[in-house]
Amino acid sequence: PRQHGAMEYSEAPVDLDVVRRYRLARLREQMQVADAAGLLLFDQINTRYATDATNMQVWCSHYETRCVFVSLDGPVVLFDYANHPHMAEDLPGVDECRAIPSFYFFAAGTHSVTKARIFADQIDELMRVHGGGNRRLAVDRLSYIPTDALREKGLVMADGEAVAEKARAIKSNEELVLMSASMAVCEEGCRVMEEALVPGITENGLWAKLHETNIR
């Protein structure tokens, strides 16, 4: 349906829980291939793929302040930048929410090493309880201080970015429907921009039309 010349959606075109479960299963398939008992994702594109939980994606892309731990045979734990469990409420792939002990310099200052070790303690415990003796932890991206803290625990680091990229390389039927819906919105945004492109409009004003359509 259209309203005021723009596409309006009130419901997703597919059951999103089906997509969420599919994506988590794909990650675990690739974890098996990589022989990893745990997967630690800091890239916000990857955390979204794993859980569909979002929270200040741009801000959290600047700092290592939000991540997801996926165990091969155990829970999925969302480490958010603060205690906000409602952000993941009713998501089928999130078993537990925790506030991350922020170890990046902007938050921790000179206490970065101490905070990183507290975080490593929690990941180590999850790996010991749910890893079945496997100490391989796949990580997509992480700076050297928390990486050192994890290795101090005896964890063996593997390439988590490869796990995530290989997982999402194969789309489900439902994902194809969602991709088509996204392309339709993009095309509508371009059409709205063309209509608004008149002498005197600023570049920011023109881009605002695209953002307005995307958000709506």
Write up what this structure looks like.
Helix 5 packs across helix 6 (144-152). Mean pLDDT is 93; it is low at 1-6. The chain has helices at 16-33, 44-51, 57-62, 105-108, 112-130, 144-152, 160-167, 173-196, 203-215; strands at residues 2-3, 6-7, 38-41, 67-71, 76-80, 96-99, 136-139, 156-159. A 6-stranded mixed sheet has the order 6-5-4-3-7-8. Strands 1-2 form a two-stranded antiparallel sheet. The chain is of the alpha/beta class. The chain is globular and about 65 Å long. The protein is built from 9 helices and 8 strands.
Q: Oligomeric status of the shown chains?
A: single chain
Number of helices: 9
Strand content bin: 5-15%
Structural class, from secondary structure content?
A: alpha/beta
State the end-to-end CA separation.
Answer: 13 Å
Low-confidence stretches: 1-6
The averaged pLDDT comes out at 93
Count of distinct strands: 8
Q: How large is the radius of gyration?
A: 20 Å
Query: Helicity, in percent?
Result: 40-55%
Order of helices and strands: EEHEHHEEEHHEHEHHH
Q: Describe the main β-sheet briefly.
A: 6 strands, mixed
